[in-house]
Amino acid sequence: MELIRLEEITKTYQLGEIDVRVLKGVSLSIARGEMVALMGASGSGKTTLMNILGCLDRPSSGRYWLDGQEMSRLGPNDRALVRTAKLGFVFQSFNLLPRTTAAQNVVMPLDYSPKRPHRAEARRLAHLLLDRVGLDNRSDHEPSQLSGGQQQRVAIARSLIGRPSLLLADEPTGNLDSHTSVEILRMFQRLNEEGITVILVTHDPKVAAFAHRTIRIVDGLIAGDESHSRAAHDAHGVAEFLSDGPTIPPPHIHNGNGAGSAATVLPLSLGDVRGEGELTLIRHPHPSPLPKGEGMIEPLPRTVGTAIAEHSRPRTQTRPTAAAHSTSSWYGDVEPRAHRSLAPTLLPNTLRTALGALRANKMRSALTALGVIIGVAAVIAMTEIGEGSRIAIQKTIASMGANNLIVLPGAIMSGSVNFGSGSSQTLKPADMEEILHQCPAVVDVAPMVWTHGQVVYGNHNWVPKNMSGTSPSYLSVRDWNEMEEGDMFTDRDVHDASKVCVIGTTLARELFLDESPVGKELRIQNVPFRVVGVLSSKGANMMGSDQDDVLLAPWTTVKFRLNGNGAGSTAAQATAQQNSLTAINSLNSLYPGGVTLYDVPSPIQTDDAPQSARQINLDMMIAKAVGPEEIQEAIDQISGLLRERHHLPFDRGNDFDIRDMTEVSKTMSRSSELMGVLLLVVAAISLVVGGVGIMNIMLVSVTERTREIGLRMAVGARSHHILRQFLVEAVLLCLLGGAIGILFGRGASILVRSIEHWPTAASIPVIVVAALVSAGVGILFGFYPAWKASRLDPIEALRYE
Asked: How far is CA 583 from the centre of its chain?
């Protein structure tokens, strides 16, 4: 039955502007089960013909059928599928993967097979084939630990694992000694007996003597096609290999009893295969046939590599067919069964291959990943430091009152002179109460009355930066809910103008040192105040002012006992200011101002008849909005209410001023975000540099592993297999680098926080993004080298040095 048919096959190579015609119209036919030798001198075209037969190359013209299917016009991936399903290759230079065990070399073609068995079954089959070629005890050895003959036997086992119907051997004994060459050629004969069609490509007539048929190629044309007597040429081929003399017609084999004429004894030691034994061949000087059946060889152990005795006997049975080959003893009871799970088919084999390649070049892989490690570590560290700074700024703003609204009185205008914000006395305690009751966007309101003076305790004195009169709601408005010691004064203390106060930790430290201030009495402007509590520490605000250098007392006490005035005294001061300006400004004599209708009470009258607290003005009010989103709504509600209470017409401006921390908060947030972006840009540059390094190393890796790529393609790897393998390697490098970079970045962040006491904050989303970015860098910068590798021509790749 015909397995191969060629019709007028030509092949022309272009070397620059010159066309070199290697094959010039080759036509031949090879039957299933034949053992054929393609013999010719170097440059005759025999290797090119083998490449076409092995679907590694396409003819320039002509047609080629393999097992009834035309191969001439198939694309690269389709030819790769044919190589996987029907062909096996044995190369002259063995082409085993370095730093890879014999078993892994044998299993490799199954990684690209559409009917890939389970990994356990594949390894079992590999060990079985290695046992068949006498190397089961060397299955875990790498090629560098094997002899030339052992490496070739590994290559034979690799070529058989896909159960091919055609075995192609290119100069299979070119790098072997004579004795090992005989063993390998006998092994090909055994394979041929079990149904595999074998094609030997050689320039050596001694090798061709082992085949059934020799096809001679000269200058790209078939110059001869000869068939041999198998029984005669079996022994003749061995004799020729072991003899330095000329080629002799079919020899006679001594019968072991001394019969026959004078002969030359040729010992063949086989002790290095499996077992001990010696083959004695007798070459007669004159060709005279011996009686049929007398030829014997002894003693010889029965092994695959040394089964010369059986090959030397005359063959009376026919060779098994291809159907018999499928149940050949070479494969035992291991049947090909496809593994149907999709996930192991798509990834693990490629993943194992990629990990093996990275493990084989540990130092280079580590240096390649270093760029990604530095980049990711920089991203993590900078992001955590930036996030910590942002949170610290937010806390600082919150400590100042992020949701606070400061309501200030308006300014007094006299002529064209503005006395500045706060000179008008438009804010009343009743305004504060109405804001709390009628403005839903406001949570709480606290009054503020300022004072200044020296605080004395014993022989210690201090002038606080902030001395204020307020109410207990001040702590709620300022989110100052905790007390270091003691309690806040009460609303009853405000109503009674009690001489009590609470102080900050700075004032407590300066006046009382290590003593507890609670219950102690201090003096302010010679007025005694009892300390009822110490505020918890808030630290410095954004402007660097110490918020703990503070003294708070009931606003009524500050207003009447420290400042010593009420509404009347402030009005008198304003009137005096107006009168002084009137006396100076000559224009006022032309346009006099308002006329005082009532006498201004004297200070003695004011002290003897104090007014109700509801008639007293406030220096400032602090309102707390429900949240940052409701700040503008709270401003609108407070403005509308105060304009209504102060009876302001539509065409007149406000007699009050409302300020909030929104702009300050936004400004600080923008600054923090800007710094964070700058840090990320620096880290991104590091990642890009790392990605460029990975691309460079992967390109170098593709160049260094060109022969490996050609070998993988020769045994059935398609372009997407090669693309995926190198892409997975790049992504693995980046992911490993990213994981290490995340650890280094977290370590750097913790180190900065421990040594420099800078605020840092871990961010899980940033870590996840860093891992994704690492994978993205691997895909982005690894795709081109992987694509370049997948586009290599298998023949050119195998020839690459």
From this structure: 82
User: What amino acid is encoded at 417 in this protein?
Assistant: V
pLDDT, one tens digit per residue, over 247-290 is 434 433 333 333 333 333 333 333 333 333 333 333 334 343 43
Alpha carbon of residue 294 to chain centroid: 72
Query: What is the DSSP-derived secondary structure letter of residue 327?
Result: T
CA angle 94, 99, 102 (to 5 degrees): 55
Q: Tell me if 187 sits within 8 A of 153, measured CB to CB.
A: yes
Phi/psi for 376 (5° steps) reads -65, -40
Give backbone dihedrals phi and psi of 357, rounded to 5 degrees, phi first: -65, -40
b/e map 226-240, b = 16+ CB within 10 Å: eebebbbbbbbbbbb
Q: Which of 608, 482, 479 is nearest to 534 (CA)?
A: 482
Any idea what DSSP says for residue 546?
B
Q: CA-to-CA distance for 296 and 307, rounded, in angstroms?
A: 13
Q: What is the helix (H) or strand (E) element at residue 20, kind and residue range?
A: strand 18-31
Residues 462-521 have pLDDT tens digits of: 999 999 999 999 988 888 878 899 999 999 999 999 999 999 999 999 999 889 999 999
Q: Kindly report the number of other CB atoms within 10 A of residue 379's CB atom.
A: 27
Q: Which one, of 589, 679, 76, 652, lies nearest residue 377 by Cα?
A: 679
Hey, what's the torsion of the CAs at 728, 729, 734, 736, to 10 degrees?
A: 100
Between CA 21 and CA 28, with CA 23 as vertex, the angle to 5 degrees is 165
Distance CA 635, CA 640 (A): 9
Assess whether pLDDT exceeds 70 at residue 309.
Answer: no
CA atoms of 101 and 96, how far apart (whole Å): 9
Report the SS3 class of residue 184.
Answer: helix
Distances from the Cα of 669 to the Cα of 386, 389, 675, angstroms? 11, 10, 10
Rounded to 5°, the CA angle 191-197-201 comes to 95
- Strand 455-457 to strand 413-414: parallel, antiparallel, or no bridges (unpaired)? unpaired
**In what helix (H) or strand (E) does residue 283 lie, and over which residues does it extend?**
strand 278-283
Q: Residue 388 and residue 393: Cα distance in Å, rounded?
A: 9
Tokens describing residue 445: 């309101």
Q: How far apart are CA 713 and CA 483, in angstroms?
A: 77
Q: Nearest CA to 45 among 17, 72, 14, 11?
A: 11
- The CA-atom distances, in angstroms, between 214 and each of 30, 39, 229, 272 are 11, 7, 12, 31
Alpha-carbon Rg for the chain, nearest whole angstrom, is 50
Cis before residue 299, ω within 30 degrees of 0?
A: yes
How confident is the model over 624-645, as pLDDT tens digits? 888 877 888 999 999 999 999 8
**Reduced to 3 DSSP states, what percent helix, strand and coil does the chain have, rounded to the nearest 5?**
45, 20, 35
Asked whether the beta carbons of 391 and 758 are under 8 A apart, the reply is: no
0.85 exceeded by pTM: no
C-beta separation of 121 from 332 below 8 A: no
- CA dist 709 and 725 (Å) reads 10
User: What CA–CA distance (Å, rounded) separates 429 from 192?
Assistant: 112
**Cα 84 to the chain's mean position, in Å?**
33
Q: How is residue 538 written in tokens?
A: 């808030």
For Cα atoms 396, 401, 405, give the angle at the middle one, nearest 5 degrees. 145
Q: Which of 461, 451, 663, 466 lies closest to 545 in space, CA to CA?
A: 466
Burial of 783 (0-12, 13-18, 19+ CB in 10 A): middle
Distances (CA, A) of 675 to 374, 386, 389, 663, 715: 20, 7, 10, 18, 55
Q: Tokens at residue 450, please?
A: 């300022």
Continuous H helices in 216-329: 230-242, 308-312, 322-326
